[in-house]
Amino acid sequence: xxxxxxxxxxxxxxxxxxxxxxxxxxxxxxxxxxxxxxxxxxxxxxxxxxxxxxxxxxxxxxxxxxxxxxxxxxxxxxxxxxxxxxxxxxxxxxxxxxxxxxxxxxxxxxxxxxxxxxxxxxxxxxxxxxxxxxxxxxxxxxxxxxxxxxxxxxxxxxxxxxxxxxxxxxxxxxxxxxxxxxxxxxxxxxxxxxxxxxxxxxxxxxxxxxxxxxxxxxxxxxxxxxxxxxxxxxxxxxxxxxxxxxxxxxxxxxxxxxxxxxxxxxxxxxxxxxxxxxxxxxxxxxxxxxxxxxxxxxxxxxxxxxxxxxxxxxxxxxxxxxxxxxxxxxxxxxxxxxxxxxxxxxxxxxxxxxxxxxxxxxxxxxxxxxxxxxxxxxxxxxxxxxxxxxxxxxxxxxxxxxxxxxxxxxxxxxxxxxxxxxxxxxxxxxxxxxxxxxxxxxxxxxxxxxxxxxxxxxxxxxxxxxxxxxxxxxxxxxxxxxxxxxxxxxxxxxxxxxxxxxxxxxxxxxxxxxxxxxxxxxxxxxxxxxxxxxxxxxxxxxxxxxxxxxxxxxxxxxxxxxxxxxxxxxxxxxxxxxxxxxxxxxxxxxxxxxxxxxxxxxxxxxxxx
Length: 609
Description:
Layout: H1 2-9, H2 13-17, H3 24-39, H4 43-93, H5 108-148, H6 151-163, H7 170-208, H8 212-219, H9 236-274, H10 278-282, H11 285-288, H12 306-325, H13 327-344, H14 355-364, H15 369-389, H16 391-414, H17 426-441, H18 443-461, E1 466-467, E2 470-471, H19 472-511, E3 569-570, E4 574-575, H20 587-598
Antiparallel strand pairs: 1-2, 3-4
Helix pairs in contact: 1-4, 4-5, 5-6, 5-7, 7-9, 9-12, 13-14, 13-15, 16-17, 16-18, 18-19, 19-20
Protein name: 65-kDa microtubule-associated protein 6
GO biological process, one term: microtubule cytoskeleton organization
Keywords: Coiled coil, Microtubule
């Protein structure tokens, strides 16, 4: 309206007069014109002043228009910026926000009023989302820093976080949360592994007697003691340090176990040698258990400490010094042990270490007692080994000697005239006699099997099998000859008895009656009797009843080997090598023995004309 008025002022006077003065500006112009007319202003001055007024009004309107244009531009820019920010927030958050469309019919302020609440809502959501990202990423960076043991990486992580602010989507948040869970699991696994390693280090330090606190602090200070500001370190360097520490401690344990086992082995030998009492051994009982244990089984505290090893070494040195003063006694005791082993196995001990020689050598100082003791221990080991190889044959020898004992008992039993009486124990002796007869029949096969077994042993070792210094095969062969001779003598005696019966019958036919024993002359058998019984004149031997404790040694069965009847077996059935000469055996003694075996009465006449 103002522009129209101003435009009217610039027109002709005729036209100005026709302009409507109904508007406030028009009324003012009319009033101004009247005033100027009353004043008497000229028309040229009026036109000039109206022109100036018009120019001034144009400037005012232009300022207003420019201000309005600027405000409109600012509103448009603000609206565009908010629209862009809105789109960026929607893209950053990644939520399904309704798309904003500008309504051209609405004013700019109305459009801004519509955009602003949506923008504020998305900004608050972004701030909340950024807090979530910040918490998750800070935890991730912290765990990564703990794992890598690097504080610089945590700072770099904060920079990376600011660069990644444009992506605040739930998908990325889920990825970061999954990464955080994986890192937390890895942290838990590492922490568990650290605890296991620390516990193993504690056990090893306990066994080795080492300072556990100092050992783990050398790896990392956080591994010992509770400190809220410095949690347990789980970095790769800590795990590697614990691993290397465990390997070093295990190597040290292996070395000390080997050293202590060698010391304990010496200690055991000295204990056995010195016959230490249980009271003396009790102090080192735990240490002594190391000898038969593996490394994993050795878990007693300080059992492998340097103090324990040193104390054990000192005990070994003490016993070694004590052993030197008792060496003669120990050597003689070992010699006695050797003799016992040889006696039980019926072997002859090495005479180079006889007691009298041992005493002489030790007293002379020519031989180290330790070397002498070692030599005897070697002989003991060889004797034990050889006794094991002789075990089978010795068992057969024992069975053979037992059978010979039964044979002798059977002979004594057969000579007992009251053996069939109904006395106490008669039935027991009858059963034993039956078993003894069966066993006696096996004696020849026992001897043959024993000879074959002995020959095989000798062929295998290329050495004779000696029994108390005599060759066992020679003894067995000699026994076979004795048994053959005994059987021949039995047959000869039976033939003589048959001949005696025939002669008695012949006398009955000649004299018509049985001769009186008093009138029958008893001929003594001369020494000219031949072994085959064909001598010119002979008589029956005067038999002698075998009583307990006495027997004719030449003709008895191997019962004499038991050591009670014959010097052929010494004490504990030890055989001698004394051969028998059957040519020197008295036939009269043989006849007497078989007369005793057959149960004939003394002074039974045997007459040959």
